[in-house]
């Protein structure tokens, strides 16, 4: 059962081939066997999952199961889950039991899904390798010496290893797409505002967005149907109709205009990744697409702009961890200042501290105009690049990351790590949707094809990805897992 997609499992449940309890129990057992060597879960909620499965089976008996009824999922440990530890990968929140569910968690519960637990992640979603977690790094299921990507590395690894058919991630600068690429699964970052951020622990609020990570575009579409929509508790969620994302998956791609940004095929792109991506583009040509070279001239400014804006917002968001209200508190503080200083010194890891320092600096008097305001102006130009491109092409394609998964410990220099995000970060700055789709294997390391579309174009992106998955089998390749 661990090899199946959500759609296949949904059919199996509907046909009565197995119950949700049987499915859930078999995945929990697999997690127990396989995860000690992967470390993709921080918390497994086995008992609760089995109870939820029984409820789902009862509903099905009564003929009340929806499209997602009885299907198991996992949540990146950044989504608040009532009564369950929600750590954000940080010592700061190691003792934090969320008192409520995030809106997406609530919606997926109502849709009848089962939560198997919470997946590992870079601390407060800061990172591209999952090495910044308080709970230790996650191993890539394709090769245990490699990183799974980050920051949603636990979700990506768990899906790739067949521990759970789908998981949720969040993407502030690539954290769904890059780990999806490194682990050979499909991951969608929706348009900013498409999904409620309520109950999602904030990193950089103008960039953060939740999204599905699964084997196929079809599975992502099924999840989007339950996840998307306006939420009165998140003022940045957009009041706009939610389409049925599964409806147009099979629409033919005849005449599709595909733009290839020249900046996404330049220096720094590993030749073997480029070869795989160009092969994928050829598949689209054979499906009737027209390929057009385009330019996104401000691409090289995306990393510098992001690494001013994201730390600035993070420094503000993370000021709430003060040892007073929730989370870690240092022992025996002598006064308030000592409480703040030691709590934060003990609770945060190095990368988080680095971002808080950078963010506090760029927001401080005298530097705000030079850094933060400037970065916002650059952000506008980057967004305009995409709007211009989408005035003459339907989608853009390129690599999700400049390399395949790299060795654990090989990117000790933070700037080297930040350069990983070159193809993903601009998308968050512009607020547009992007999906990464398995598109090759190089030395048994997956390559991800990134497809980008205009604001609220995720239904079309899913269609473009799905038709490719009907013509190729990269998404069906599985890592060999030692059990
Ligand atoms: N790697 C980027 C960062 O460290 C993006 C992370 C993310 O999308 N959450 O900020």
TrEMBL record:
Pfam families: Amidase (PF01425). It catalyses: L-glutamyl-tRNA(Gln) + L-glutamine + ATP + H2O = L-glutaminyl-tRNA(Gln) + L-glutamate + ADP + phosphate + H(+). Residues 22-462 form the Amidase domain. One of its GO terms (molecular function) is glutaminyl-tRNA synthase (glutamine-hydrolyzing) activity. One of its GO terms (cellular component) is glutamyl-tRNA(Gln) amidotransferase complex. One of its GO terms (biological process) is translation. Its EC number is 6.3.5.7. InterPro entries: Amidase, Amidase_CS, Amidase_dom, AS_sf, GatA. It is an enzyme of class 6 (ligase). The active site is at residues 76, 151, 175. Keywords: ATP-binding, Ligase, Nucleotide-binding, Protein biosynthesis, Transferase. Heterotrimer of A, B and C subunits. HAMAP family: GatA. PANTHER family: GLUTAMYL-TRNA(GLN) AMIDOTRANSFERASE SUBUNIT A (PTHR11895:SF151), TRANSAMIDASE (PTHR11895). This is Glutamyl-tRNA(Gln) amidotransferase subunit A. It comes from Kushneria avicenniae. The gene is gatA.
């Amino acid at each position: 059962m661990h090899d199946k997609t959500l759609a296949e499992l949904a059919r199996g449940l509907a046909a009565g081939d197995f119950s949700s309890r049987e499915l859930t129990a078999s995945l929990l057992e697999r997690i127990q066997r396989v995860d000690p060597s992967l470390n993709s879960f921080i918390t497994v909620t086995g008992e609760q999952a089995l109870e939820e499965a029984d409820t789902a089976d009862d509903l099905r008996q009564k003929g009340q199961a929806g499209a997602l009824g009885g299907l198991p999922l996992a949540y990146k440990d950044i989504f608040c889950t009532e009564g369950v530890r929600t750590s954000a990968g940080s010592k700061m929140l190691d003792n934090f039991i969320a008192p409520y569910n995030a809106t997406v968690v609530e919606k997926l519960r109502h849709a009848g899904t089962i939560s198997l637990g919470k997946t590992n992640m870079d601390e407060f979603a800061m990172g591209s390798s999952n090495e910044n977690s308080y709970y230790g790094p996650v191993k890539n299921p394709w090769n245990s010496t490699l990183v799974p990507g980050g920051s949603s590395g636990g979700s990506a690894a768990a899906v790739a290893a067949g521990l759970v058919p789908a998981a949720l991630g969040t993407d502030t600068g690539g954290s769904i797409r890059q780990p999806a690429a490194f682990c050979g699964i499909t991951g969608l970052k929706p348009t900013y505002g498409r999904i409620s951020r309520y109950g999602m622990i904030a990193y950089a609020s103008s960039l953060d967005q939740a999204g599905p990570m699964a084997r196929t575009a079809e599975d992502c579409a099924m999840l989007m149907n339950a996840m998307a929509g306006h939420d009165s508790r998140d003022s940045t969620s957009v009041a706009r109709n939610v389409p049925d994302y599964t409806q147009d998956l099979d629409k033919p791609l005849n005449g599709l205009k595909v733009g290839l940004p020249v900046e996404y095929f330049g220096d720094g792109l590993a030749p073997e990744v480029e070869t795989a991506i160009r092969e994928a583009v050829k598949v689209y040509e054979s499906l009737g697409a027209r390929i057009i070279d385009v330019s996104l001239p401000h691409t090289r400014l995306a990393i510098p702009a992001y690494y001013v804006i994201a730390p600035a917002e993070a420094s503000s968001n993370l000021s709430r961890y003060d040892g007073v209200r929730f989370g870690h508190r240092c022992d025996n503080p002598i006064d308030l200042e000592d409480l703040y200083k030691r709590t934060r010194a003990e609770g945060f890891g190095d990368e988080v501290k680095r971002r808080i320092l950078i963010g506090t600096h760029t927001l401080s008097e005298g530097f705000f105009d030079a850094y933060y305001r400037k970065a916002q102006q650059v952000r506008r130009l980057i967004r305009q690049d995409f709007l211009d491109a989408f005035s003459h092409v339907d989608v853009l394609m390129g690599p999700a990351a400049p390399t395949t998964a790299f060795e654990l410990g090989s990117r000790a220099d933070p700037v080297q790590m930040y350069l990983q995000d070159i193809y993903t970060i601009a998308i968050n700055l512009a607020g547009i949707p992007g999906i990464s789709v398995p598109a090759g294997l190089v030395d048994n390391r997956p390559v991800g094809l990134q497809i980008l579309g205009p604001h609220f174009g995720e239904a079309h992106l899913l269609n473009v990805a799905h038709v490719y998955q009907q013509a190729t089998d990269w998404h069906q390749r599985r890592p060999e897992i030692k059990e």
